[in-house]
Amino acid sequence: MTTKTTAIDPATKSMDDIVALCKRRGFVFPASEIYGGLNGFWDYGPLGTQLKNNLRDDWWKNMVECPPLDPDGHPLQIVGLDSAIIQNPKTWEASGHIAGFNDPMVDCRGCKARFRADHIDEYECPLKPSKKAGDHDKCDLTEPRQFNLMFETFIGAIKDEDAKAYLRPETAQGIFLDYKNIVDTMRVKVPFGIAQVGKAFRNEVTPRNFIFRSREFEQMEMEWFCHPDEAPKWYEFWKEQRMGWWASLGVAAENLRFRDHEEDELAHYSKMCVDVEYRYPFTAPGFGELEGIAHRGCFDLTQHQEHSKQKLEYFDQEGKQRYIPNVIEPASGLTRGVLVLLCEAYTPDDSRPSKVFMKFHPRLAPIKAGIFPLVNKDGMPQVAEKLYMDLRRRFTVQIDVKQNIGKRYARMDEAGTPFCFTVDGDTLSGQTVTVRHRDTQQQERIALDKVAEFLGEQIEDGE
Ligand code: ATP
Known about the structure:
alpha+beta; binds adenosine-5'-triphosphate; seven-stranded mixed β-sheet; five-stranded mixed β-sheet; 13 helices; single chain; globular
């Protein structure tokens, strides 16, 4: 079975409605809400955590456990890593983050708002009538000032310059720091990759658009080390792979696109860069970044070699050649990917009691199935309980005995649960249950002892 794509125009979806559903159903909550929240920080609730973990695990499986095949049909070599969030501060000198990881910010003396100077067109001035930032009569913008995005902290008891350290603004540098350890211990040969998923922190000037731009977020990054002559080939390879992966999660092709970076937009380390972009409800009809695929050349390893005085060259035994590998980096936001899944799944539908359902790919859905006894008597709860006990080791399933069946379906529709199994009078006599399909609301009967097999097939293949 192939994955269906949505035809709903994201511009017709309301971010306010999506944010409200996320709160109502336990996907995402504002962090520290009882204290009034904290701008740029979010908590992932029970369903959001499960969705995020499922997305992370799918990426990890696709990168590390079952990596793609090379053009000759051989599996690529990619190993995993989990490096520290706080590294020796010299890391960020070498990487260029202390000198150059800045965003230009401007303040408005009129309305007291703060904007990112390079994105000024995207902001509204808070004064009424609403106008673009800078366009109001009272607007009086300062000159742009550079603002470093790294969060600082101190190690140990004394808070002086020598004790200063940084929360990592990206997961990539930890990979470069362990490159030598991995070459020495894992018997990898160029070309190979190192993948990492974890938290990153950026003191964004203006966090906004829900979890799109936050100050604490998660990234999924893979550094692909290759021979310099082969870097252009691998850049194209990873471009296609990454787009294919997002599409495999059920994201509609018309909502995804590539955007090449202009020369003047390239980061200091980058030779070529392309973004995978998604059409978010708040950017539609335009697109916004989801993932960047960068050709980083030999910048990072060369810098760390110079600053650490450790040899980071690779010795190619067969070619008797010594060189610093080039790096192709597919870098995506895990939490930004969760936002894409939430926006893409959100499907208004007036025909059902919930008026909306979340059309997650069954592989990613936080709950795979709801199990309901039709009524809470006549032996039905016991059969439902047994079915739940059989399934729960293999699948994330929920049993729900409360309320009428319509309300239980509505809850599962908003949670994006692809299947609901109902135990009814016929189950007791004929050993069958009804299965309700979330997207079509259609029901069919299947044998009670075939439920696990059915669920396994549907989740593996998608609907
Ligand atoms: P931007 O230009 O939007 O600030 P970037 O190009 O600096 O982002 P990268 O450094 O390439 O972003 O980071 C890789 C990925 O990490 C991005 O494609 C995005 O998915 C994610 N990401 C970056 N910054 C944030 C953030 N503040 N909040 C959530 N995700 C982020």
